[in-house]
Amino acid sequence: MPWIQLRISADEDTAEKYSDWLMASGSQAVTFIDAKDTPIYEPLPGDEVIYWQNTVVMGLYDASHDMDKVIAYLQSIHPDKKAMRFKLEQLEDKDWEREWMDNFHPMKFGERLWICPSWRDVPDPTAVNVMLDPGLAFGTGTHPTTALCLTWLDSLNLTGKTVVDFGCGSGILSLAALKLGAERVIGIDIDPQALQASKANAERNGVEDRLSLYLPADQPSIQADVVVANILAGPLRELAPVIMQFVGEKGLLALSGVLENQAQELQILYGQWCEMDNIAVQEEWVRLSGTRK
Ligand SMILES: C[S@@+](CC[C@H](N)C(=O)[O-])C[C@H]1O[C@@H](n2cnc3c(N)ncnc32)[C@H](O)[C@@H]1O
């Protein structure tokens, strides 16, 4: 079925209100996109949704919908109808799922590690291949913070090591560590849905017997050889003592989810406990790493 897409420019104060208007005018789906490419992480369950300062609110209508009526309705409720900026677009009738799948390819990280969607051929069957399809939890390898952690894990000799994946999301880093030779991984996440996704992904990769998953309230007290935490700068600051409790003697630590301008403060904070390496940068994101002194 062909579709018509209506785009309205909004900001963080008006985005939700415009979304309600689009739904009330018969839109079948509403999407928010960032007009300025400012990254925001997915909110945690129960957290307030954060909108971008320059948000585009998009409503999708079937092509037979009377869009003149929609525009007239929106202008009738907009406080300043002359200032209402909108655009109508006709969308080609495509197989959207197919199109999206066509754009998701196997990705290589470091020397040995590949993340492969299940509907693609594995490019190198002799490599370390993690089979992972995008799902509800964060972590497919496309985000620079995940990529920075995957490359770091690939650079280590993980054979026989115990690893803690703090903020495991889809389990992508846990699976990578296990496939790279880790003996055991402890995955921790505040979001129960992430733990479910990690479990399902571990089963798909045949490594579920070596992955233990916990909510923070139940997390075990263990000392790991390697700890990786891809959360955000705020929690990395607040939880520094908790995260450091997992890092065993001479243990290795990597932190991501940190923007370039937040790196220095965390480098100093974790420098209390670790000999810190040079910061690695990808796009505007960084990875900090170090070895417990
Ligand atoms: C950016 S995602 C990272 C997912 C995956 N590890 C990756 O590298 O792609 C951050 C994850 O940390 C979890 N998280 C955020 N704050 C947390 C906290 N205080 N304790 C445990 N997990 C947390 C989120 O639920 C989310 O799944």
UniProtKB/TrEMBL annotation:
One of its GO terms (cellular component) is ribosome. InterPro entries: Ribosomal_L11_MeTrfase_PrmA, Ribosomal_PrmA_MeTrfase, SAM-dependent_MTases_sf. The keyword Repeat does not apply. One of its GO terms (biological process) is methylation. It is found in: Cytoplasm. It is an enzyme of class 2 (transferase). S-adenosyl-L-methionine binds at residues 146, 167, 189, 230. Keywords: Cytoplasm, Methyltransferase, Ribonucleoprotein, Ribosomal protein, S-adenosyl-L-methionine, Transferase. Its main location: cytoplasm. Its EC number is 2.1.1.-. GO terms for molecular function: protein-lysine N-methyltransferase activity. It catalyses: L-lysyl-[protein] + 3 S-adenosyl-L-methionine = N(6),N(6),N(6)-trimethyl-L-lysyl-[protein] + 3 S-adenosyl-L-homocysteine + 3 H(+). Gene3D superfamilies: Vaccinia Virus protein VP39. Methylates ribosomal protein L11. Belongs to the methyltransferase superfamily. PrmA family. PANTHER family: ELECTRON TRANSFER FLAVOPROTEIN BETA SUBUNIT LYSINE METHYLTRANSFERASE. This is Ribosomal protein L11 methyltransferase. It comes from Thalassotalea piscium. The lineage of its organism: Bacteria, Pseudomonadati, Pseudomonadota, Gammaproteobacteria, Alteromonadales.
